[in-house]
Amino acid sequence: MTEGHTITIEQGDQHVRVVHGGQVLAESDRALVLRETGCPPRYYIPAEDVRLDLLTASDTHTVCPFKGTASYWSLPDAADLVWAYPDPKPEVAQIKDHFCFYEAEVS
């Protein structure tokens, strides 16, 4: 990590639910919480707890110098709402096969 930049990943202990347009896209008690300098906490949800059948792969890819290359998925009315790191950097290997949403409710 760059000096002053940290990423921590821990097993979350809260229920995470993602709803868009009244439809549940993901629900999990097994989400990982990723905390990164300068960013809000992000919940990475295991693929098994995500309604992948509702999502369409996007052509969008972004590169994070700390996590790797992200791939994105969309809904018909929400482009690039979901992302994942299919081949994350070794320092954040725990997020492999986990999806992150811009909108996640935590309870």
SSE order and pairing:
Layout: E1 7-11, E2 16-20, E3 23-28, E4 32-36, E5 42-46, E6 56-64, E7 68-75, E8 78-84, E9 98-101, E10 105-106
Antiparallel strand pairs: 1-4, 2-3, 2-10, 4-5, 5-9, 6-7, 7-8, 8-9
List keywords for this structure.
Metal Binding Protein, Guanine Nucleotide Exchange Factor, Chain A; DUF427; three-stranded antiparallel β-sheet; single chain; 107 residues; seven-stranded antiparallel β-sheet
Going by CATH, the homologous superfamily would be Domain of unknown function (DUF427)
| Radius of gyration, in angstroms, nearest whole number | 13 Å
The residue-averaged pLDDT reads 94
Would you tell me which CATH topology applies? Metal Binding Protein, Guanine Nucleotide Exchange Factor, Chain A
Mind summarizing the main beta sheet? 7 strands, antiparallel
In the sheet with the most strands, the strands line up as: 1-4-5-9-8-7-6
Highest CATH level, the class:
Mainly Beta
Percent of residues in beta strands? over 45%
Number of structurally distinct domains: 1
- Count the strands? 10
Helix/strand order, N-terminal first: EEEEEEEEEE
Shape: globular
Structural class estimated from helices and strands = mainly beta
Summed up, the helix count is: 0
List low-confidence stretches: none
Q: Could you say what the CATH architecture is?
A: Beta Complex
